[in-house]
Write a structure and sequence with these properties.
246 residues; alpha+beta; Aminopeptidase; eight-stranded mixed beta sheet; two-stranded antiparallel ribbon; 6 helices; 30% helix
Length: 246
């Protein structure tokens, strides 16, 4: 990162003379090609989400979540009701545009308009959503909201350091690993060391270009298989629009 020097010859951060606090994210639907994000509602989404999660063979997807697993539908519905009432985090249901059914949830959290920072979290993808184009597009829709529509400077991803799948997903999407926060939390009766990842606004043009190209309909064959990987598109984007320092 670049820096400046003040009148005492001390290094200080680069200036942001035009910076103003950003708006808080609106609670409104976000439309994609394969999925739509809707503000989470227990009345509208709980039953469909329970059906989607009921397809899981076991409860392993809840191992690294602060919540769950849930013994029955009433307990799950209470959980979804509490999430839908939250203002930070702001929870969204991921709607499959083909079936029109909810297949997972994710949220914007630790939202800081003053400093232009927010985090994606509470990512709970059912078997119907995991490892699909919809899963990638759901993340892209929230990233685009943060950077393109609201002008935030920083977008974070944090996970249990032992959750290899989450760490891999962050890197695939274009997040940069920032480090390990040791003994950062206690949950479900055990320690959590937290791995931190982020995308900043100077990196977003490259990340966005790769995601948009990967998500385009022409990148998939009639069976829905990708023609080129996201990593290949990112390498191309890095060559054509190198990272900027803002």
């Amino acid at each position: 990162m670049s820096s400046s020097v003040n009148q005492y010859q001390q290094p200080i951060g680069f200036p942001l003379p035009e910076w103003t606090p950003r708006l808080y994210p609106p609670q409104q639907p976000l439309e994609g090609r394969t999925c739509r994000l809707e503000p989470l509602s227990a009345q509208q989404h709980a039953e469909g989400l329970w059906a989607a999660w009921s397809q899981a063979a076991d409860e392993r997807d809840w191992t690294w979540m602060f919540s769950g697993p849930f013994p029955n539908y009433p307990a799950f519905c209470t959980h979804i009701s509490a999430q839908s009432a939250s203002q930070d985090a702001l929870h969204f249901a991921v709607i499959d545009r083909q079936s029109l059914q909810p297949v997972g949830t994710l949220a914007l959290m630790r939202i800081d308009p003053q400093h232009g920072s927010m985090e994606v979290g509470h990512v709970a993808f059912s078997p119907r959503l995991k490892r699909t184009t919809m899963a990638t597009e759901a993340h892209f829709l929230l990233m685009a909201l943060a950077f393109d529509e609201l002008g935030y400077r920083r977008y974070e991803w944090k996970c249990d350091s032992l959750n290899a799948a989450s760490r891999q997903a962050a890197l695939r999407l274009g997040f940069q690993y920032e480090g390990l926060f040791r003994q950062a939390a206690v949950y479900k009766g055990r320690n959590r060391d937290t791995a931190w990842f982020s995308i900043i606004d100077g990196e977003w043009p490259t990340v966005s270009a790769a995601l948009r190209q990967w998500l385009a309909a022409e990148n998939f064959d009639v069976q829905g298989q990708q023609r080129r990987s996201l990593q290949a598109f990112r390498a191309q984007a890095l060559h054509s629009c190198p990272r900027q320092i803002l």
